[in-house]
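ok so i was messing around last nite and threw this chain in just to see what happens. nothing serious, just curious
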Amino acid sequence: MHFDPSQLSSEEASRRRHRVLTIVLLMTGPAILTMADLHWRTGYDPWKVLHLILFTLLLVLIALGAAQSLVGYLLRRQGGDRCRIADTLEPADLVRPVEARTAVVMPICNEDVGRVIEGIRATYRSVVRAGLLPECDFFLLSDSTDSNCWIAEEAAWLALTRELQAEGRIFYRKRRLGINKKSGNLADFCRRWGKLYRYMVVLDADSLMTGEAIHRLVQLMERNRRVGIIQGVPLLANAETIIARLQQFASRLYGPVSASGLNYWQLSEANYWGHNAIIRLAPFIRHCALPELPGRGPFGGRILSHDYVEAALMRRAGWEVWLATGVEGNYEECPPTVIDLAERDRRWLQGNLQHTRLIFAKGFHAVNRVHFLLGILSYLASPLWLAFLVLSTVIADQMKRAGQAEAPLTGFAAYVHWSYSGEALCLFAYTIALLFLPKILAVLDLRSRPADVAAFGGWRKIIEGVLLETLIFTLVAPVLMLFHSWFIGLTLLGQKVSWGAQRRGGAAALAETAVAHGAQTILGLLGAWIVFRIDPQLGFWMSPILAGLILSIPLSYLTGSPSLGLWLRGHGIFETPEESHPLPELRELAAAMAGRSESPEPPPGLKANYGMLQAVLDPYVNAVHVSLLRTKDDPPRATEERFIALRTTLLSEGPKAITPHDRKALLMDAESMHWLHQEAWATPAAHLAPWWRSALLHYTRLAPAPQTAFSR
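result:
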């Protein structure tokens, strides 16, 4: 089935969006009227008006997800959407050689060097197998501020290029100043090398793409010359902990149906998610430079969530943005613990709240404004839910004080003889049904796909996975609700968020978990005491929320355990097709990560500045590092004298004798690093600081091979 985007009229796009909106209205209308009728029976006051408004907003968000899944399910039952960018290729396009220069770029900042390198290795080898290598280069773009990561990246990059014989194919660049975070990193690449390439494939540090996926995305761009961005639909992979495996299972099971519905109404006004996407570089460079928002942070200044804005700018310039449903071989990983999940959301949260300044900006397409609004509401939903629960408790307390055991039959209830409790119970059941509808539709969608059922482990494992995922996420949801509400409060108070490295693997310590969830546990206990004193029946309905908060510490700790997650995997729980039938790239990555040798842990006194130790003492690392630094022509005499003094102090008194800023300055100065390497080995040990004597002893004992030691 061939699809030509040029034949898609604006009228057809509008009809699709109106249909989705109509479904949302049909889903929400009866429930909103029922809630309004419940309040009518007991008499309106300002609390109930606000309660109804919050209920309406939250129900619309739930109904949008349900409507999207319903549309996606119906489309897939009919054989798929006829308007997919993946269906634009003709048979001649599939066999035509790709001659478009493409850069595969991976921006990183203080990431696990081993995972980064193995991800590039697997992707590079897959590109070679797909026959794309002559037109494809790889770029590792570092903004790492941790010198240990920085030095490890350099040694690992060069070792990788030598192993793969990829000199001139895999490049490494470390920015001196990490201005504007990831978007600034990509902008720097575009300024330096963008004109050499037609396309840019953007990966995250935890991304993996097959050569076939990259090949298909390039073919789609070549076929559709008015498309500026094609966003892939990455699947989650390589999860170990329970919470990560839960997300992986849920996204794999529910995602295809939802993505089909999302593409149905987005069409050529899709969003860009910042990674696992292909970008046409010429219009991106010309039109997608990010403006600086007026005022100070957190709402002003540099834009944090750049991807939504870049998609909107690309569309404003007349270029299309599509979601590539149906293109396989696209993967990413997910946070391993509830705490890491919340930390990631905090970074995204502030960036999305910034978009309030852009909703009404001139020139943006209406759908892009909807993307901005939905991104904001996805996080505002948490404090709205919290406010809704508090208001429900206040209203229940008012009714108890007023002695309203049973509300009179007024409004709609007078015609159907609906008791107040019966009407409330039906409304609750309807809301839960909307929440569960996407899950039900996704499971029903599998009926026509027996191969997928087998890949998930069979119907029994699917049902067990859905039930366990629903139970765990029901308990985790109120924890994330409080996290998001707290983060929004901090943002409104003007506190900026730190965009550090995301933890990609491992488990949270029990002490860290207790500190992170201690306040939530106390709030859960206090809330349970208040609610059950007011109305035990209300406490019963709120028990899943209260239980999640009260049990947040053990829940977070256990769901963040890799050993328990792997135990579930061993029993087939949360199994996905990528685990039962993994592609070669996933097998390569898993084998490499399982078999890599960990570098010996340095002594505690050396660990903080281990990168400096390697860059100064190890001849190989020093040579690699110095070769990547820019040499300065005739620096001012004052600068030379300053560096001479810093070098001398570093050797005679140790790294702690100079500031972190000065240590970084020395690492960035080629002459200083060359001098330090020579002097550290030539100076008698008695004239060196105790730190350097320990470093020399440690180095000579272990004689590490940094070219094969990729881990931190």
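not much to say yet. The longest helix spans residues 366-402.
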